[in-house]
Design brief:
Helix content: over 70%
Radius of gyration: 24 Å
Structural class: mainly alpha
Strand content: under 5%
Order of helices and strands: HEHHHEEHHHHHHHHHHHHEHHHHEHH
Strand order of the largest sheet: 1-2-3
Number of strands: 5
Largest sheet: 3 strands, mixed
């Protein structure tokens, strides 16, 4: 143990001599520089506690719908102010390891936090119409969104296995409750399944962390990454295997992807949007961080990434071919797209990180635009949210501009040139070719073509298929017109602007993609160094 302490002190002295890394291993007090760095998280959790007390107090004086609206607006303002505080931390373009190696504040974590907060704000804006039209008690819904964002911010800044695990557990408990909204039979069933699967994955992750501590004698990433183990290599491989597969389970990737269908299918659509954008972005960015802090040169991890990536591409692409439900189709699509990201992580170079960020960024931006449109589209006949692919029939007849925007986004996911999705895939293929991984290249091309077929089939349904009522119970006046499967209900100018921006971004960004690549390279290098 004394040897490990001496080695850790040597590493600290080495880091202190690097101008871009500041290790401040002193107790926290409100007047220290720690308070400035950790101010966004402190402000967010303090505000959320105040909102919880305020909601309990207002229940005695106002209607449930009014209180829900008040808490919703205050939560939005809280997240917006927290986003501003996070952006202020970007000026400290150095790495600060604080609170006895529990947290790290660097450029990478700051950017990811800003992205998570921005996506959470969009998620709340999207759910406004659903909340306003609901007659059940949803007071705590925006509050739980804020709590989950707080745990995600802690998760991204984690520099210790203890901080990482506690943040994951806090986030998981919050997500179990969010899954149950709006307390329908299907959502309660989804929450129960999610609780069981989540507890199992947390146990696997905890076992890997315990074995890691037994081997390295420390929890912080610095000691684990710099300590060489010459004995008990089997235990080291088992620990690595359990930690990596714990994260793969949280991401819903192959071979632990089956829970995602049951959970997402039963959840409320705004919750599904939150899971597929905010949560997946946070966990994926943390996964990248853990790999390159702890397992960058571990070949077992590279093999696990290739195994999961290939399996995810197969399951995601082939599973989408037979899907008739929209949610399941996009869940399969998500598995396939993130599986493709694993090919970039397998290479392990700073340039590969950059290109993986590029691909994941374009995929997530496009997914946000698609989900915004689908969330605000209702069945023309039933007057409820979309459920089946056929509900989108002749969408373009009533909503031509929105149908064009949705088609462009789907073509970008399919990798059709010259849209953004094509360039992001091309760069990863280029890196795989340079590494002489021709088998992965051919495999990726084949299953990318299958994905393209699925997205083009959706576009065909949007623009060319017609859904006409043919039932005697409907008035004959209806047959004077084409009764189409769905129509668009946008009553929020902010969402309109977001869709327009995403569509233009997908079309225009390839023209000036080099500047975007330089920015992503700066993010990637800030983590690797």
């Amino acid at each position: 143990m004394n040897t490990l302490i001496n080695q850790k002190n040597h590493l600290i002295n080495h880091l202190l001599n690097i101008p871009d890394v500041l290790v401040q291993n002193v107790p926290f007090n409100i007047n220290s520089f720690h308070f400035l760095l950790f101010k966004p998280e402190l402000f967010l959790i303090t505000s959320l506690v105040f909102l919880a007390v305020l909601a309990a107090f207002l229940r005695n004086f106002y209607r449930i719908q009014d209180i829900t609206l008040y808490i919703y607006i205050l939560t939005l303002y809280t997240l917006a102010l927290t986003l501003g505080m996070v952006l202020q931390n970007i000026i400290y373009n150095k790495t600060y390891i604080i609170f006895n190696f529990a947290l790290v504040i660097d450029y990478y974590s700051t950017i990811v936090k800003a992205i998570i907060l921005f996506l959470a704000i969009i998620s709340l804006i999207i759910s406004y119409r659903k909340i306003k039209m609901s007659f059940i008690d949803l007071i705590e819904y925006p509050w739980f969104i804020g709590i989950s964002v707080f745990f995600l911010m802690l998760l991204i800044s984690s520099f210790s296995m203890i901080t990482l695990y506690l943040s994951i557990e806090g986030l998981s408990l919050t997500l179990y409750i969010l899954t149950a909204y709006p307390f329908s039979k299907s959502s309660m069933e989804a929450a129960s399944k999610y609780y069981v699967f989540g507890a199992w994955s947390s146990g696997v992750l905890l076992l890997g962390i315990v074995l890691s501590y037994g081997l390295f004698g420390a929890f912080d990433f610095l000691s684990i990454s710099q300590t060489e183990i010459y004995s008990y290599k089997i235990l080291k491989d088992v620990s690595t295997f359990l930690i990596v597969f714990g994260f793969i389970f949280k991401l819903g990737m192959y071979p632990f992807h089956m829970w995602a269908f049951d959970v997402y299918e039963g959840t409320w659509f705004p919750v599904t949007f939150f899971f597929m954008t905010v949560i997946k972005t946070g966990v994926f960015c943390l996964f990248i961080k853990v790999i390159f802090y702890l397992f960058q040169s571990v070949w077992l991890v590279k093999y696990l990434l290739v195994f999961s990536g290939i399996g995810s591409l197969i399951v995601g692409s082939l599973g989408s071919l037979t899907q008739i439900k929209l949610k399941k189709l996009f869940i399969y699509s998500s598995i396939s797209q993130v599986g493709f990201c694993f090919f970039g992580l397998f290479l392990g170079t700073p340039e590969a990180i950059q290109k993986t960020f590029l691909f994941f960024s374009f995929y997530m931006i496009t997914s946000i635009g698609i989900l915004i449109i689908l969330l605000n589209t209702e069945s023309y006949i039933q007057g409820v949210g979309l459920k089946y692919v056929t509900d989108l029939s002749s969408f373009g007849e009533h909503n031509r501009a929105e149908a064009i925007a949705l088609s462009i986004m789907l073509l970008s996911l399919a990798g059709i040139p010259p849209l953004a999705g094509f360039w992001s895939k091309l760069f990863i293929f280029k890196l795989l070719i340079e590494a002489s991984l021709f088998n992965l290249v051919m495999f990726g091309i084949v299953f990318s073509a299958i994905n393209a077929f699925i997205y083009i089939k959706l576009i065909k349904c949007l623009l060319f298929d017609k859904y006409i009522i043919k039932t005697e119970s409907v008035s004959t006046d209806f047959f004077l017109f084409n009764i189409y499967g769905s129509y668009f209900k946008f009553n929020n100018w902010i969402l309109n602007l977001i869709v327009v921006f995403i569509t233009l971004f997908i079309c225009i960004i390839p023209i000036d993609i080099n500047e975007f690549l330089i920015y992503l390279k700066q993010i990637a290098n800030s983590m690797v160094e």
